[in-house]
## 1
Amino acid sequence: MRGGGPLGPAGLALLPLALPLMAAAAWASARPWPAAPRGQPRPSVVLVACDSLDGRLTFYPGNQTVDLPFVNFMKRYGTVFLNAYTNSPICCPSRAAMWSGLFTHLTESWNNFKGLDPDYVTWMDLMEKHGYHTRKYGKVDYTSGHHSVSNRVEAWTRDVDFLLRQEGRPMVNLTGDRKHVRVMEADWQNTDKAVNWIKEEAINLAQPFVLYLGLNLPHPYPSPYAGENFGSSTFLTSPYWLEKVTYEAIKIPKWSSLSEMHPVDYYSSYTKNCTGEFTKEDVRNIRAFYYAMCAETDAMLGEIISALRDTGLLKKTIVIFTADHGELAMEHRQFYKMSMYEGSSHVPLLVMGPGVKEQQQVPNVVSLVDIYPTMLDIARIPIPQNLSGYSLIPLLRGKAENEVSSKGPRPSWVLSEFHGCNVNSSTYMLRTGKWKYITYSDGRSVLPQLFDLSDDPDELTNVAVKFPVIVHSLDKILRSIVNYPKVSSSVQRYNKEQFMSWKQSLGQNYSDVIANLRWHQDWLKEPKKYENAIEKWLGKTK
Ligand SMILES: *[C@@H]1O[C@H](CO)[C@@H](O)[C@H](O)[C@H]1NC(C)=O
Ligand SMILES: *[C@@H]1O[C@H](CO)[C@@H](O)[C@H](O)[C@H]1NC(C)=O
Ligand SMILES: *[C@@H]1O[C@H](CO)[C@@H](O)[C@H](O)[C@H]1NC(C)=O
Ligand SMILES: *[C@@H]1O[C@H](CO)[C@@H](O)[C@H](O)[C@H]1NC(C)=O
Ligand SMILES: *[C@@H]1O[C@H](CO)[C@@H](O)[C@H](O)[C@H]1NC(C)=O
Ligand SMILES: *[C@@H]1O[C@H](CO)[C@@H](O)[C@H](O)[C@H]1NC(C)=O
C-alpha cells in the first residue's frame, strides 16, 4: 500500500526513540544565534511545499473535516503555526516571496508570468555557498515566463471595463476505486525521486543537506472539456482518499447575495465562473473532493518523513511543511485563491526537528518571507538586514517572549498583496491581532474591508465603516510598509505596457488570438464590444 501510511501506529510508537531528548537540554540553553550550538553539526533541512493547501486544515476546528496523519505527526513532534500567511495568494508571486525573502512589491513579481529575476540569490544558493548540499524536486515556479498566455493576458487586462468568464465552472470527478492511491501521478513520481535521493544519496553525505520538494496537489486539475484553452477547475480524487473525509464535518459556507458582494469579489466570482447556481450538494462535494486531495498531499509528506526516519536522518533534520497559498473551495462563492479571505491567504506552516519545540501551537502572525531568514539561521549564515521577513527560530524554540533578532523585534503584523488575474484591483492585506484590513488600488476608489476574525471568522461582515479609527491606524501602518497607491499605479502601467507589446507582436492575428483565449465562450458572442473596451482602456492616459 504505497502512500497509505507507512508510519502507522507502530511508526508513531517508535519515533520517541528516534528523537531523543536532546531537544530540551542542549537547545534551550544556546544563546544567542545560531540555531544550533556552535561545534555541533548544522542540521539538514527538508522543505515540502505543496500548492493550494488551506492552512486552517492543520489545526482545530478545520482539521475535523479530513484525516491528515502526517500533519498530525508533525504537530506531535514539532510546532504548528496557527496564523501563517502567504505574501501573495497566487503561485509565482508567492514563491518569489518565499525564495527571495522579499515582499511582492519588492520582487515586482506581479503575476504568474512575472516572477523573480533568475539571478536572484535565494536562500538555497546561500546555503550551498556555505557548505550545504542542495537538491530540488518537483514544482518550483518562482521565475518568469511560465503559465498560459491566457493567464497573463487576463492579469494584464484586469482594468478593462468588461466582465468575462475565464474558467470552467468548478466540478468534481471521481476516478479509480478504493485501492487507487496514486491519483496525482506526477507528484508521486517526484516524491519517489526525493525518497530515493534520501535513501541513496543523502544518507552518504558528509555535509548537511537541504532538500526541496514542490508538489502540485492539492491544486485543482485542468478541465479539458472546456476546450484548448482551459483552466484548472476539476477537483479530482479516488474513493480511497474520499474515505478520509468526514462529510458530516464539512461546513457549507454562507454567501452574500450577488448584489451585496464587494465589487472586487463579484469580479472574482464572475471571472471564475461561480456566479451561476450551485446546490448545497454541489458545494459539499467540491469541498469533500478538495479535502480528499489534501489527504493525498499529506501522504506524500508521509513518504518523506518515513524515508528520513528509515535512514536515521530524521533526528538530524529540520522538516518544514507549507504551501504557496490556500484554496477557497467555494467559500465566498469562489474557488482558487487570489483573495485575502482566510481560505486563500492562510497557509499551513509546520516545523519539526532538532531544536524545535514539540507539541507547540504558535499564535503569532508569520508569513512566507520568514522562510528565507529561517533557513539562513538554521545554517548559521548571517542574515542580511534588508529582508522582509524574520527568522522563525526564536518562535520554534518556544522563546518568543524574550528574544529579539539582530534586526529588532518581529512586528505584530503580516502583509499580503495581490496584483494578478481574477481581481480587478491591486489588493493589500494587513493582518494584526484579531483584525484583517484589506484595501485596494489607491486606497480611495474602492471600498476597504475590515474583519474582526475573533468575532467573524468567516469574514462575512465588513466592519470598516463601523470602526473608522481602527481603519485609519491600520492604514497608517500599511503605508509605513509600502506606498501602496504608488505600487498600484506602477502595476497598472506595467499591465498596459505588457499588453501593448504582446498585441504588437501578434500583428494581424491579434483579433483571432485574443478571441480564443480562455474566455473564448463569452468573447466570441460579442468580439467587437470586447475589443472596443480594450481600445478604450489603452487610450486612457493613466
Ligand atoms: C485537531 O487539532 C487539535 C489541535 O491541534 C488536536 O488536538 C486534535 O487532535 C486534531 N484532531 C484531528 C482529528 O486531527
Ligand atoms: C462556465 O460554466 C458553465 C456552466 O455553468 C459552462 O457551460 C461554461 O463552459 C463555463 N465557461 C467557461 C469559460 O469555461
Ligand atoms: C475524470 O478523470 C479521468 C481521469 O483523470 C479522466 O480520464 C476523465 O476525462 C475525467 N472526466 C471529466 C468529465 O473531466
Ligand atoms: C471590478 O469589477 C466589478 C464588476 O464588474 C465592478 O463593479 C467594479 O467597479 C470593478 N472595480 C474596479 C476597481 O474596476
Ligand atoms: C540586500 O543586501 C545584500 C548585502 O547584504 C545585497 O547583496 C543585496 O543586493 C540586497 N538586496 C536588496 C533587494 O536590496
Ligand atoms: C499569424 O498567424 C499565421 C498563421 O498561424 C502565422 O503564420 C504568422 O506568422 C502569424 N503572424 C504573426 C505576426 O504572428
## 2
Amino acid sequence: MFTQIPKKSTPPRIRKPTIIIFSSLSIILILILIFSTNPCSQTTQILFPNFTPNYFKNTYNILYPNQETTPTNISHIVFSIASIVKTWHARKHYVESWWRPNETRGFLFLDQAPNQHLSWPPTSPRVLVSNETMGQKDVSRAIRIARGIKETFKMENTSVRWYVMADDDTVFFLENLVEVLKKYDHNGYYYVGMNSESVISNNLFSFEMGFGGAGIAFSYPLASILVKNLDVCLKRYRGSYGSDQILHSCMADLGVSLTHAKGFHQIDLRGDISGLLSAHPQAPLVSLHHLDSVEPLFPAMDRPQSLTHLMTSAKADQSRLFQQSICYNHPTNWSFSLSWGYSVQIYEKTIAPSLLQVPIQTFREWLPGARPAFMLKTRGPSKDPCEVPHYFYFDSVEDSGRWQQVVTTYVRRFPRRLPHCVVNGTHSADYVEKIIVISPVTRLQTEGSRRECCDVVHVEKENVTTIKIRPCMKYEMIG
Ligand SMILES: *[C@@H]1O[C@H](CO)[C@@H](O)[C@H](O)[C@H]1NC(C)=O
Ligand SMILES: *[C@@H]1O[C@H](CO)[C@@H](O)[C@H](O)[C@H]1NC(C)=O
Ligand SMILES: *[C@@H]1O[C@H](CO)[C@@H](O)[C@H](O)[C@H]1NC(C)=O
Ligand SMILES: *[C@@H]1O[C@H](CO)[C@@H](O)[C@H](O)[C@H]1NC(C)=O
Ligand SMILES: *[C@@H]1O[C@H](CO)[C@@H](O)[C@H](O)[C@H]1NC(C)=O
Ligand SMILES: *[C@@H]1O[C@H](CO)[C@@H](O)[C@H](O)[C@H]1NC(C)=O
Ligand SMILES: *[C@@H]1O[C@H](CO)[C@@H](O)[C@H](O)[C@H]1NC(C)=O
C-alpha cells in the first residue's frame, strides 16, 4: 500500500518571521502606492522580477483558441469501458442496453484478446486489449483500467469534448448524459461524476471522488493533461485500490476537484432499490450501476427483463425518467407520488412533499453495520397503514402523438395486505389496480426549473386512476 506516514511538524516560531513579513508587506504596500499613481509603472516586474505579465493568464484559452460553440451532442463523447474476458459475456447486455452502434464512440478494454475476436458483434463497442504489463509484472487491474484513458485518447482525439470512463456493468442514459455535460464549458478543466451512496465507501476513498462504476467524465483539456501525466500518477499511486482512486489522486495533483452530478449512480446498495428510484433527486438520470448486486428493478421480472423494460420508458422520454411529481386527491385525502416511467405510490393520508421526497428505505447497506449508512435521509420502512403506500410499477408506454402526449401506465404488482388508514377519514385505495399518467411530449428542462405539478382525475369507484402532469402555475404550492 502506498501510505504516507505524517511527519511531525515542528512547532512554528512566530515572532521574528512575523515581524519581517509585516515590515516587508508595508514596504510592498508603500511601493505599490507609489508606483500605482504612475501610469507607466510596471509594479509587478519591479517587485517580482521573474514574473512576466503573462504569468497570471489562464492558459487554456491560448491552448484552445478555436473554441467550438455548437451544442454538445453524442458525437463529442468518447467512452472507455473496462471489462475482462471472463465476465464480459455475462455483462455485455448492460453495455448493449445503451450503446448505439455507429453513433457512440469509444472502446471496450479487455484484459486479453477474446476468443471470438473475429466475429465480434457490431452491437458491442470495438475492443482494445490493454497493454497489461507496461514493462512490469503483476500490474493491477486498477492500473490497467486507468491506462484505458490514455489509449482511448491516443485512438480518438478529433472533435472530442468529453472522455467518459465506466465499467462494463454501468448503464448510461445517453440523452441525459449529453444534457448534463452540455451545462459545462468543455474548454475548461472538468472532472464530473458522483461519490457513493454509501458513507463508508466515501469515507474510505473520498467524498470528492468520482466513483468509476457511476461513470466519470473528463473534459478534453483535462484528459489531455491527465494523459500526459498518467505514467507519473500510476507510479505514485500504484498501491491504490481502484482506477477511480488513482484518477482521483491524479486530479488532486493536477489541481482539479470533482463536480458532483446527482444523476450518476454508483449504487453501493443492496436489496430492493425501488425506494431510491421512486424518490430520485431532481436531476436527469445519467447512470445506474451494480444492477447485479441489487434485486431486479421491477417485481415479477428478472434483471435483464427489468432493464429492457426500463429502457422502454427511457426511450419514450428520457428527460422525465425517475422525475418525481407529487399530487393529492382531496376528496379522499390521498397522496400520490410519481416517479415517471418507474412507479406510482398512493398513500391513504395527506403527506407533505418534504417527506414524500425522502426515499423509503427498501434497500440495505453496501457493507452491513455501517452507521450512518447512506448519503441520504431515508424513511421507514414502516408497518403503519398510513405510512405504507400502495405500490404501482411501470407497465407500458404509448406515444399519443396526435394529442401531444405521452401516456404511461402503472399497475399494482402485489396487494398491500394492510388495514385501511383512518387518520384522514377512512378511504381505502385497495380497489385501484392501474394508474394512467399523461405527460407532455416536450422534453423536460431540469436546469433551473421546478418539479412538475400534477392533477388527479378520475378516482371515484374506478379501478383505474388517471394523473395529468403539467407545469406548476407561477405561485402554486403543491398540496
Ligand atoms: C454534433 O455537433 C456537430 C457540430 O459540433 C455536428 O457537426 C454533428 O453533425 C452533430 N452530430 C449529431 C449526431 O448531432
Ligand atoms: C454501421 O455502419 C456500417 C458502414 O457504414 C454498416 O455496414 C453497418 O450496417 C452499420 N451498423 C449498424 C448496426 O447500423
Ligand atoms: C504494448 O507494449 C509493448 C512494449 O512496451 C509495445 O511494443 C506495444 O506497442 C504496446 N501495444 C499497445 C497496443 O500499446
Ligand atoms: C490523436 O489521434 C491520432 C490517431 O487518430 C494519433 O496518431 C495521435 O497520436 C493522437 N494524439 C495524441 C496526442 O495522442
Ligand atoms: C381529510 O382529513 C381531515 C383531517 O384529518 C378530515 O377532517 C376530513 O374529513 C378528511 N376528508 C375526507 C373526505 O375524509
Ligand atoms: C391528515 O392527518 C394528519 C395527521 O393527523 C394531519 O397532520 C393532516 O393535516 C391531515 N390532513 C388533512 C388534509 O387534514
Ligand atoms: C376494473 O374493473 C372492471 C369492471 O369493474 C374489470 O372488468 C376490469 O378487469 C378491472 N381492471 C383491473 C385492472 O382490475
